[in-house]
Amino acid sequence: MITCARMRRSRPSHRAFPTSQSPLLLLPSILLSFSAMTFAPRSAYARCNDPQTSACINSDTLWPHAGPSHFVGIGGTDTVAAGRVGFGLFTTYLSRPILLHIPSPALGGTDLKAVDNQVDTTFLFSYGISKRLQLDLEMPLTLIQSGSGVSGITGGDGLRDTAMRDLRFGFAFAIVPPDAPDEPGTPDGASTPSPWSLAGRLVVSAPTGDAGQFAGDKSAVFSPSLAGEVRLGRFFSGMELGVRVRETSELEGARIGTQGYAAIGFGFDILTHDGLSLTAEGRALPVFTEQHDLVQNGAFLESQPNGKHIVPAEWTAALRSAPFRAADVAFQLGGGGAIPFGDPLALTTPRFRFTLGIVYAPRPPTPPKALSPTASASP
C-alpha cells in the first residue's frame, strides 16, 4: 500500500495552459478554417452568372462590427481588453431592399418585390489578442422574410422564410486608441486622453449564405476600412472610409460589384459616462461597376452597358445607453431610411430600416486623468 502511494506521488503532473493563452493556440486553426470557407466556390455558382436571374446579391448592406462602438454603421476605434471575449446581438428590419422594375404588358412596366420585408439578426463575437488588436467574427442569418425572389422572372420558387447569410470575420487594430495620452503624464503617471482616435479594420465575407435567397455574394468580399472618432466634451463625431472588393453580380441590368464605403456620424451625450447618447449618421456605398440594360436581340436578351452608376445610401438616428458603471454593456435602438441618389432607389437600398442591438465589450480600465498644477499643489 505504501509503495503504491509513493508511485502515485511520483507520477509527473500534466500542466494545463493558462486560460489567457488557450485561444491564441487555437488561432491558426481558426484562421485556416475561415480561409477554406472564404475561397471555396459557392454552390450553384453557374446560376450566379446569369444576368437575368442571379440572386447572388447581399440584400443587407449594413454590416455591424463586433466590439465597442458608438454608432450603428460606423466602426469603433476601441478594442476589447486583451485576453477578454466580447459578444453581441444585432437585429434589423428592412423594407424592400431588392425592388426590380421589369418590362410587362402594363404601361411603364411592373415593380417586382424580390425582397419585400426582411428581419436579420447577427451574432457578434470579439476577442482581444493584445491591447490594440482584436479578432472579430460575425454570424448573420435571416429570421423571416417575404418577397417573390426571382420567381416573377423564372416562374420557379420564391424566397424561403429563413436563410443563412454570408459569414464574416476579420480584425481591428487601434492605431490611436481613445485612451492614448495627448499631454505628457504627470509625475504620478496620470495623463490627459487624446480627443481623437483612429482604428484600421479588415473584414472578410465568406460565400457561405444560402444560394438564391439574396443572402450573400457569389464570391468572397474583402473590406478594409479606416475609422476615426473625435470627442469634444459631450459632443462626438465618427467617420469610416473603406471599400468592399467583390466579383460583380448582375440582376435585370442592375450590377453590384466593388463599391466604396463612406459613413459619417455625429452624437451628443445626453447623460454622462455613456448613460444615454443620441446619434445621427449617413452611409453611402457607391458602386464602381457600370450599370447595364437588358436589350432584346432576336430570341435572346443581351446585357449592354448604359453609362450609369448607382449609390445605395441610408441615414440612421439612434439612442444608445450603457447603464452599468463599467459601461461594458450597451443597448442601442435606431431607425432611418433611404437617401435618394436618383429615381428609382438603387438596388439594396431599403425604403426604411429599424435596428436593435446589445453588445458586451469588456474594455481595460481608463487611466486616471492628469491633475491641474493647482489641484496637485493643494493639500
Keywords:
379 residues, Porin, twelve-stranded antiparallel barrel, two-stranded antiparallel ribbon, disordered N terminus, disordered C terminus
Can you lay out the helices and strands and say which pair or pack?
Layout: H1 2-10, H2 22-39, H3 45-48, E1 85-102, E2 110-128, E3 133-146, H4 151-154, E4 163-164, E5 167-176, E6 196-206, E7 221-232, E8 235-244, E9 249-251, E10 254-256, E11 259-271, E12 276-284, E13 292-297, E14 300-305, E15 313-321, E16 329-338, E17 352-360, H5 373-377
Antiparallel strand pairs: 1-2, 1-17, 2-3, 3-4, 3-5, 5-6, 6-7, 7-8, 8-11, 9-10, 11-12, 12-15, 13-14, 15-16, 16-17
Could you walk me through the main structural features you see in this protein, from its secondary elements to its overall organization?
A hairpin with a 2-residue loop joins strand 13 (292-297) and strand 14. The longest helix is centred in the first third of the chain and has 18 residues, at 22-39. The strands form 3 sheets. A 12-stranded antiparallel beta barrel has the order 1-2-3-5-6-7-8-11-12-15-16-17. With 379 residues, the protein is mainly β. The chain has one domain (24-366): monomeric porin ompg (Porin, Beta Barrel). It has 5 helices and 17 strands.
